[in-house]
Amino acid sequence: MNTKPNILLIMADQMRRDAVGVNRPEFAHTPHLDQLASEGINFTHAYTSCPSCIAARASLMTGLKPSRHGFTGYDADTEWRYPVTLAGTLAQAGYHTQCVGKMHVEPARALMGYHNVVLHDGFLHDKRRKYRDPIEYDDYLPDLRRELGPTADIMDDGPGCNGYAVRCWPWDERLHPTSWVTSKSIEFLRRRDPSKPFFLKVSYHRPHTPYDPPMSYFSMYDGRPMPTPVNGDWTSFLSTYGGLDCPIPREPFFIERARKAYCALVTQIDFELNRLFTELLDLKLLDNTVILFLSDHGDMLYDHGVVRKSLPFEASAGIPLIIRLPRTLGFQGAGTVDERTVELRDIFPTVCAMAGLPIPEGLDGLNLMDNMACREYLHGEHAQGAMSNQWLTDGKEKYCWFSQSGRELLFDLSSDSQELHDWAAERPERIALWRSRLANELDGRPEGYVVDGKLQIGRRPMSALPWAGRGC
Predict the structure, then answer these.
(1) Active-site residue, 374 included
(2) CATH architecture of the region 6-376
(3) Which of 32, 171, 172, 250 is 20 to 30 Å from 374 at the Cα level?
(4) What percent of the chain stands above pLDDT 70?
């Protein structure tokens, strides 16, 4: 008899923490996620410590911080050979494990401990150049071609895969990648082994670009005021980039249009989740299923004049995290707000604890079911050329160091959650404290960031440390 709880892990891509309605009601419309938060725990200081797809997913899968799993930026070439993973640990414990949607690992078909993966990573240039046939790296595109014809492609609707131009999805809504991931996830729930508990990761590619929401969702924002991008008093040194295939519109009308399209993609995910929740109810699984909702990182979305991720700011590194525990675990804390500083690496040990499994030795994450578990501060980083950065936060303050220029920023998150004012010049004693802590974190790293206890400016950042893909 199955006595362990089922685990449903839902992951959005590039969804910022304040895109959940309960965290910022005037931004995106997310009634189903709001309800999930009202029945569970909303972690309002959740982060990804290396805010881009690959590194964030490595933290989730391994329970390790970036300096230990090895991905400290975006590196799509290094193969993943981790001996211990979340999915593998659950599979060994008797769970039927499946991922539907985005994995973003190399090789593309690496299972990472899952029994099966139904794969869609979105439009990835490196995979398209490396593999001969779409079926080698994607399950969605062959399905799309069966519906639209043999020459159909992911980007036929027009917007760039990393651009901020907008065009609504021109085909049947059920062909959209977001709907496809939901449908394939429901298929698993109906075809799973009923004698085993399941671990299902539902991994959406959106609201990552391209901005192509179905018109039914985009039109929800017609006439609805959209908050304008915020702009701090310190942002002149920031830079962003576009490309011929991925433009970044700068006209205010089209900036607002991009932000509405982003929110529309979030709302689409929210409504698709109700299809999943309804299926759990129909299959009488809801009362024994843990539901976790999170994302890999956020999107600056024109805040402080920039877009995308990889930066240390709340819009980029802050992620939603909601956990709904089932009745079988005796959960009594519906509607709880948890203000601890938490991170993606915490999911692995937390899921093990919820499943009644021993937590593997050597993980860096916290068991969030232990209310006493907390960290003094969190270290984050991202190698990104001139914008390469290191940062620390305890949820109340945040210190940022840009390693190529030496630029330092200090934010008082308690009173300024949108990071509008830099306190670095006005609080030198706090800068000195955080600088010392960062030097301790980086001491001994192969980049040579620290010499004789002092941070070194201009050292060459590495997107993948020598042990990336294997862990240390």
Answers:
(1) no
(2) 3-Layer(aba) Sandwich (3.40)
(3) 32
(4) 100
